[in-house]
Structure formats: structure tokens, C-alpha cells
Write a structure and sequence with these properties.
about 900 residues, alpha/beta, Jelly Rolls, Phosphorylase Kinase, domain 1, 12-stranded parallel β-sheet, 7-stranded mixed β-sheet, 14 helices, 52 strands, about 25% strand, disordered C terminus
């Protein structure tokens, strides 16, 4: 069946089941379907879009609702929580967002709940403990955060639990005691640390156990010996101790993955070598482990080359037989892998796979185009290798140097006709040498159709230790039931690996070595002579050397790389202008989009100071800090390279002009506020250095493609000593966000950031800018208005009217009261940022003290700010996401205040990286 979903079905009042699964239907779900009195509504595998109509909550008889694998968007309707008879709600593989509504706690007959691959956020709700009849729970590849609530232990009827890719903080292994009926347990990539509980061994019916990609440590519990499992996947953890003998015995019949337990490695000598095996031990032993088996190289960390590094190219036909293309022989790769598998036919390359398809155990791990797809191009596009979760290819014994990696893809498992089998979405990520190079990659979308070959080039990949790793992995997104439950996960057609260096095959090795040595000697003599003449500008080279020897956790870029990425700093790529220089958008050779800060010649930032500050902030890495990719220092060029943020800054999202503003729902605002708090808590309390930001404001909070908050412009002040808090040489901040004690007396502690955070939190909940100066009105700042409303007991007036009624009044008042607590005039009465995080999460009460407004106090405060502004340099930076730089002259303009002491060593590294034009 094709066409629009028929609205006339709503008139079939005698209907008891409506199953339109696996068709080619489009359009939206008619709200009139709420008139039906059916027990089953299944629209699985269509092209249905739009929101889920709230009227479906009126079908009192509904027991099963299956809307999987469509294009639905918007939040989950709260009305669905009134379906007291509902047993199954399957919504996976759509584009739904928001949080799981609180009134879903009423669905006490729920046995099957699936929301895989949606954009649903928030924490896993505690009320799932009310679903005591639950048999299956699938939460893979969402935006939800941990921890997994302890109350899940009450779901003693659970047989299938699949949770993956949780965000948020690390957590201990969830309490699963009593869940003895479990058959499939998947807790993959959930940031779980600590030992595996012995109680997991009490799940005697367990067939699939997947705890991969966590931080589990300790030994494999002895209780696992009694389990009659088929698949045990424990890869990418930090497990240690000897591998039990029973695992070696069981691996003859079962699939066991213990790979990449590489921090505190297994201590036992490998029993088997590196031939094909369903017991995957890749990189699970330390390099210092003694072994009498010379074939155990693959089990050592880093896949140490068993011979000498001798290869400089590699060609693999993934999933197919030997073939030739462009004069190169592509090696055969036709082994049908499995849920846990490692194979190496030679010392040149190997592969490792892991994962079990949902609902289908005996699926093939290679595929061939046997349909009517009209393929063109090389033969290797007709076959492919795939895996449900993880697929790794290794180039072994590679010479040290730079390589070009070309990955070939063609979607050959979907059809190109008007049937449901053409509606699949395969989405996965790709990393090379541990660096993510493709995110949410969709072959069909990139190639603009099925059966069409496409290659992705990564021009500079470095091999230092002899091994090159290509990792393709599924993050729970896309469809997993079209046309069947084995057509998802990463897929690749071929791999081409060629050197960027001269392989030197034309001369004997002795001659090459002689030439190289002679050239080096001559070069050193010439360089020494030039240095003696002072041609080199010794200072710059010395600073570059200092940068190179720093233990940076980032990359060091060459200036030519950045020139190429930005089109030689093409004005069309200019996205910002600040007092310290310009910001450019760029694209690296591997496709990574970056933001480049080019410090101007007017900047007082010296090379030495630049090196020192880069060294400091390179150690600061957190999910809610803008990621520093690296830096460049050549001659007078000082560049810093950051990740590019797709949704610009919070200021534009909240109170930009109408065509730039984002419609942020309450759940998103709450998540953004929590992200800022967590980022600051890290800077203040969790990082190795104690960092005070000094300029927290909405323009310094950037938003990624998923609207996650990331703080920019950090690393501006370092307090090495608790008592060294008075900085008299320079004040850096923004009027309206600076704490009074800092603005008036230069007294700086981390409580100054807490004050600024309080102002930002107030802006988030109100959707108004605190710096809107209104001289003819009673209140100069938003904060002053909040004080008055607090006195009147009417704080709810602050809530952004654009939210309507779609927000939690309790949570909104909590955030407002917390903002007022953070902006207390007395720094000692402000909470720490870690306490702020707990208050936002409801773990601690918020007791905002009433701040009495005083006319004299207000006059002094504003006169102080006025004097500070007149006595200081004020700079306004601009930013436009559209490759056009526009002026910033609206009343909401931010002013960054600095003293005239430009020689101060307490300087800002990257002020206003992404300040935005909100006109």
C-alpha cells in the first residue's frame, strides 16, 4: 500500500486491530484516529511524519501501539499516559524529542517499551519501577543520561534489557538483583565503572550479555561459570586477572569478546595464537606480559607487529573475493565473521568484529548485491562487510609516516523501489587511529541513493607504532527492522591505504640510508650557519620548540594546514571578529569542521604567554567545555583550533533576532543550564588546575548540533593559591554579569563565576537578556526585576511566555530561586558549583535568601559599573553563522571590560570566540 495514511479508517468503529505495517505510506497520523476503539495500532516501517497526535491517548481500548521506523518528530504526548490498558509502546527509529512524560508512570500494564534511536533526552525516569510487568525495555542511541535508576531491580519479570550510549556522569553497575528471568542484557557504552557484580551470574537463563565499552574493572566473576550463555561481550573495559579456564573451553562453542581491556591487562599468558577465533583477545594483554607463544602478538596492547614494519600500502575488498582496480590488487575478505571474531590471514592486515543483531541470531556478516540494483563502478561495490555493533580493520606492520585512507561504501541492502524496504536508515560512526572522522554517517544519504558507490578520503593519517586502526561502530541510531532486523550497523565495501611519502623502492636500502644521512649532515651545517647569522629570528623558533615539548593533550598544526582549511583565511570564511583577532571557519582534510582563532598583531599575547596558556588549557577536557583540537605557532602566527559548534551560542538561541532564535523547550533549557553548571564545576573543583572563567555569559556558552551546552573562552585565570585572590592589575568580564566584589574591588574567587552563572540561569528561564539597559524604566537589569518579583512572591512572572504551559512550574521556580541564590551580593552565601549541580537535579533543596533592594545600594552599584566602564577599554566582538560579519549595535550588546594595564600577565587567550550578531 502506498500514499497518504487513510483518514477514513477512523470511521471503522467496528475495527479491533489496524495493522498497516511495512507499506509505503506517508503523511501524518490523522487526529481522527482517536475515535477508533481498537486494541492494536501498528504503523511500523512507513514514511509517516509529523508529531504523534495527542488524540491517540483517547483510544481507551488500546493495548499495543507500534510506530517504529518512521519519520515522526516532536515530543511524546502526555495523553498517552492515560492509556491504562496499554501493554506495548514501540517508538524506535523516529525523530522524537523531549523527555519521557511523568504521567507515563500510570502505564502499569506496560510490558514492552522501545524508544531506540530517538532524540529523547533527560534521565531514565524512576517511575519505570511502576511497570512491574515489564518484559522488554529498549533505550539505545538516545540523548538520555544515566544513571540507571536502582528501582529497576523491581522489574523482576524483565527478560530483555537494552540500554546503550547513555550520556552524563560515570555510574556504578546498576542494581539488577532479582532479575533472574533475564535472557538478553545489553548495557553498552553507559559509562559504568567498578566491578561486575556476582549477582549477574544468578541470571541462569541469560543467553546474551553485552557490557562492552564501559569502564568495568576487576576480575570476571566466578559465578559466570554457571551461565549457559551463547554470547558474552566484555570488550573495551579495564578487566584484569587471569582468564578462567572455563572461558577457554566455552569459546569452542560460544562467542566471547574480551578485547581491549588495555589499562590493567589480563595477566595470564594467551593459550591460543592469532589465528581466526570466536574468542576475541585483541589488545587484551600488556606488552610486558611474558609469553612462550610467539603467535600471541595480536593480544598485546597496540597489536605489536610480529615482524618488522615493512608495508606502505593496503587494499581490501571487504566482503568479497580478490579483485583489481586502478592497477591495485584488492585482497579477498570473504570470511563470514560472527558476534565475536578476530581473524588475521597474514602479518599485513586483520579484522575484529563484535555484536549481536537485535532479534536475529543467525545473520550473515557479509552481504552481496543480489537484488535488481543497477551497480556501476568497481566490483568491490557489489559486496560489503557489516557488523551489528563494531567492526575494526587493522593495517599491520606499516612503516612510520603519513598515509591517505580512502573508505569505499555502497548501500546494497535496501531496495530502490516504492516499497518499505527502501525506507531504511543506516547510521554509524567511523574513527581512524582513535579519532572520530565520520559522525552519524548515512551511506544512502551521502551517495544520494542505494547501489551507488561513494568514497570518503582522509588525506593525512599518521602511523607511528606500525598499526593503523579503522573502526566502524553503531551508536543505536537509524532503523533496525527494515527490511529485517539484520540490516543495520556499520557497512563497508573496500579500503584503500596509500602512503603520502616516497617509499624509496627505486634504490637499495643502503643507498637510501647513505643519502639520508649525508643530507641531514649538510642540512644541519646550513641551518647552523643561518642561525649564527641571526636569519632565523631565534625567539620564534625557541617558542615553537617550547610548544612542541609541552605535554599537550591536543594536536600541533602546521600553518599550511590551517591555510588550506580556511581557504587562505578567505573573508567568506570569517565568522567572528574580536579585540584579539579574527575567527574563521575551516575544514580539515579529513572533513572535520573547525573554528580557528587567529590572534592579531595588535594582541599583547606574546609567544611565551601563548605557549604557557595552551599548555594549561590543553589538560582541560570535559563534555561541557568546547574542545581544543590544537594550536599553531609559526613565526608571528598564533592560532588556536577549536571544534565548530553548529548551533552557535546561547545568546542567539534565546534572544537573537527572530530568524536566528531557536525554539528551546523547557527540557532543553534545563539540560543547557545543567551542562553549564557541570562545566563550571569541573573547572572549579574537578580539574587538575583550579580555573576561574571570569566571563560567563550567554555568548560564551556554545551549542552543538544536539543543543548541548559547551563553555568557551575558559582558561583565563588560574588561582594556584587559595589566598591569592586579589587581582589588581586587570579586570576581565562583562557588565551585568560580573559579581559586585569583583567589579568594585577586583576580588576574584570561583564565587564570581557562580554569580555570573546565576545571571545566565535567569536568562535561560526568562528568555530575556540581563544587559538590556532601559533608562526610562524602573529596572536597569533583569536581576533587579527578579528581586522585586521575589519580594512580591510572584517569581513565576519571570518564566518565558514563549514556553506557554509546556514546562514544569516546580522546576522553573527551582531554577529561578537557584539563580537568586547564586547572585547573592555576599560571595560567602553563594553555593559551590557542585552544589548547584545537585540542586538543579533536585538532590539538594534550594533556599534562596530574600535580597532587599536598596536605592542607595543600587545607585552605588550602577555608579561603580559606570566608572569601571569609563576607566576601562570596552570591546565588542561580532559573529555571524552565515559567513558574513555584521555590526553589533543593538541594546543587548555585550561589553567586555578590561583595565588599561595591557601589560598584565593575566591575559585572555581567546576572548569571545563565538560572539554573535543577534540583530
Amino acid at each position: 500500500m502506498t500514499g497518504i495514511l487513510p483518514p477514513e479508517f477512523a470511521q471503522l468503529t467496528h475495527l479491533r486491530e489496524l495493522d498497516l505495517s511495512r507499506n509505503y505510506l506517508n503523511g501524518s497520523i490523522p487526529s481522527s484516529y482517536g475515535q477508533l476503539r481498537i486494541t492494536i495500532l501498528s504503523l511500523l516501517g512507513n514514511r509517516i511524519s509529523g508529531p504523534i497526535p495527542k488524540e491517540l491517548g483517547d483510544i481507551e481500548t488500546l493495548e499495543e501501539l507500534n510506530l517504529e521506523n518512521n519519520l515522526l518528530e516532536g515530543p511524546l504526548p502526555t495523553n498517552l499516559g492515560s492509556l491504562s490498558r496499554l501493554r506495548k509502546m514501540m517508538l524506535s527509529a523516529n525523530f522524537l524529542n523531549g523527555t519521557v512524560p511523568e504521567n507515563f508512570s500510570n502505564l502499569k500494564n506496560m510490558t514492552d517499551f522501545r524508544i531506540d534511536g530517538n532524540r529523547i533526552s533527560g534521565k531514565i525516569p524512576d517511575f519505570i519501577g511502576n511497570w512491574t510487568s515489564m518484559d522488554r525495555l529498549d533505550i539505545q542511541g538516545t540523548l538520555m543520561e544515566g544513571p540507571i535508576p536502582p528501582i529497576i531491580s523491581q522489574l523482576t519479570n524483565m527478560r530483555e534489557l537494552r540500554i546503550s550510549d547513555l550520556r552524563g556522569k560515570q555510574m556504578l553497575f546498576p542494581n539488577l538483583e532479582g532479575l533472574t528471568k533475564m535472557k538478553d542484557l545489553i548495557l553498552r557504552n553507559c559509562s559504568i565503572f567498578g566491578p561486575i557484580p556476582n549477582s549477574v551470574g544468578d541470571m541462569t537463563l541469560l543467553k546474551l550479555l553485552d557490557l562492552s565499552n564501559n569502564m568495568l574493572n576487576g576480575m570476571i566473576p566466578n559465578t559466570f561459570k554457571q551461565l549457559d550463555f551463547d554470547y558474552m561481550l566484555l570488550g573495551d573495559n579495564t578487566l584484569s586477572g587471569p582468564i578462567p579456564d572455563w572461558i577457554i573451553e566455552r569459546s569452542r562453542d560460544d562467542y566471547i569478546d574480551l578485547s581491549y581491556n588495555s589499562y590493567n591487562n589480563f595477566t595470564q599468558t594467551p593459550i591460543q595464537g592469532c589465528h581466526s577465533s570466536t574468542l576475541n583477545l585483541v589488545s587484551s594483554y600488556s606488552n610486558t606480559t611474558s609469553s612462550s607463544n610467539s603467535d600471541s602478538w595480536c593480544s598485546k596492547k597496540g597489536l605489536v607487529c610480529p615482524t618488522e614494519a615493512k608495508y606502505h600500502s593496503l587494499f581490501i575488498n571487504c566482503g568479497g573475493s580478490r579483485t583489481k582496480f586502478e592497477g591495485n590488487d584488492y585482497e579477498e575478505d570473504s570470511t563470514n565473521r560472527g558476534p565475536s571474531y578476530f581473524s588475521s590471514s597474514s602479518d599485513k592486515w586483520a579484522f575484529s568484529s563484535s555484536g549481536v543483531y537485535v532479534g536475529l541470531r543467525g545473520a550473515s556478516y557479509i552481504t552481496t548485491n543480489t537484488s535488481s540494483l543497477d551497480m556501476s563502478g568497481p566490483d568491490f561495490y557489489k559486496t560489503a562487510c557489516l557488523a551489528p555493533n563494531s567492526l575494526k580493520y587493522y593495517g599491520l606492520c606499516m612503516r612510520r609516516g603519513s598515509y591517505r585512507v580512502r573508505l569505499h561504501f555502497a548501500e546494497i541492502m535496501y531496495s530502490n523501489d516504492s516499497t518499505y524496504s527502501s525506507l531504511g536508515r543506516r547510521i554509524f560512526d567511523v574513527a581512524i587511529q582513535g579519532n572520530v572522522v565520520l559522525t552519524d554517517f548515512n551511506i544512502m544519504e551521502e551517495a544520494k541513493g542505494v547501489g551507488k558507490g561513494i568514497s570518503m578520503d582522509f588525506k593525512e593519517v599518521f602511523v607511528n607504532s606500525g598499526t593503523l586502526e579503522i573502526h566502524l561502530y553503531w551508536t543505536g541510531k537509524g532503523t533496525n527492522a527494515i527490511p529485517d532486523r539484520a540490516v543495520y550497523g556499520p557497512l563497508i565495501s573496500a579500503i584503500t591505504l596509500t602512503p603520502n611519502y616516497d617509499t624509496g623502492n627505486g634504490l637499495p636500502i643502503g643507498a637510501v640510508i647513505g643519502i639520508v644521512l649525508a643530507s641531514v649532515v649538510v642540512l644541519l651545517i646550513v641551518l647552523f650557519a643561518l642561525w649564527k647569522k641571526g636569519i632565523f629570528g631565534g625567539k620564534d623558533n625557541k617558542e615553537e620548540l617550547e610548544l612542541r615539548v609541552l605535554d599537550l593533550q591536543t594536536g600541533h598544526f602546521r600553518f599550511r594546514q590551517i591555510k588550506a582549511a580556511t581557504g587562505n583565511f578567505d573573508p567568506a570564511n570569517k565568522i567572528g571578529e574580536g579585540g584579539f583577532g579574527s575567527v574563521y571557519k575551516g575544514t580539515l582534510s579529513d572533513g572535520t569542521i573547525i573554528a580557528v582563532k587567529q590572534l592579531s598583531s595588535k594582541s599583547k599575547q606574546g609567544n611565551r604567554e601563548f605557549v604557557n596558556e595552551i599548555g594549561m588549557i590543553s589538560a582541560l577536557q570535559h563534555p561541557h567545555l568546547v574542545k581544543l583540537y590544537g594550536c599553531c605557532i609559526e613565526g608571528n602566527q598564533l592560532l588556536v583550533i577549536y571544534e565548530y559548534m553548529e548551533n552557535n551560542c546561547l545568546a542567539r538561541a534565546l534572544f537573537g533576532r527572530d530568524d536566528l532564535r531557536l525554539n528551546l523547550d523547557w527540557a532543553t533549557r534545563k539540560r543547557i543550564c545543567s551542562g553549564i553548571a557541570k562545566g563550571l564545576a569541573y573547572l572549579h573543583e574537578e580539574s587538575r588546575l583550579k580555573i576561574v572563567h571570569r566571563d560567563i555569559k550567554c555568548t560564551n556558552v556554545l551549542l552543538d548540533k544536539d543543543l548541548n551546552a559547551k563553555i568557551s573562552d575558559f582558561g583565563l585565570a588560574k588561582l594556584d593559591d587559595e589566598e591569592n585572590t586579589h587581582i589588581s592589575t586587570r579586570i576581565a568580564g562583562t557588565v551585568g554579569y560580573m559579581a559586585p566584589e569583583y567589579a568594585m574591588r577586583g576580588y576574584l574567587t570561583d564565587k564570581a563565576d557562580v554569580y555570573s552563572f546565576g545571571v545566565v540561569a535567569l536568562e535561560i528561564v526568562s528568555g530575556r537578556s540581563n544587559t538590556n539597559y532601559r533608562p526610562k524604566e524602573e529596572f536597569v537589569y533583569l536581576l533587579d526585576w527578579a528581586y522585586v518579583l521575589q519580594e512580591q512572591g510572584n517569581l513565576s512572572e519571570l518564566v518565558d511566555p514563549r514556553l506557554g504551559t509546556s514546562y514544569s512550574k516546580k522546576e522553573a521556580l527551582r531554577m529561578i530561586n537557584l539563580a537568586l541564590l547564586c547572585t547573592n551580593p555576599s560571595p560567602t552565601l553563594r553555593p559551590s558549583m557542585s552544589s548547584v549541580v545537585s540542586m538543579l537535579e533536585g538532590k539538594l533543596p534550594v533556599e534562596a535568601q530574600l535580597v532587599k533592594r536598596s536605592t542607595s545600594d543600587d545607585e552605588m552599584r550602577f555608579k561603580s559599573f559606570e566608572k569601571l566602564s569609563l576607566d576601562s577599554q570596552t570591546q565588542v566582538s561580532t559573529y555571524s553563522q552565515d559567513s558574513q560579519v555584521q555590526s553589533m549595535n543593538a541594546p543587548w550588546s555585550d561589553s567586555s571590560v578590561h583595565s588599561k594595564d595591557e601589560n598584565s600577565t593575566t591575559s585572555r587567550l581567546l576572548p569571545d570566540l563565538y560572539n554573535v550578531n543577534l540583530n
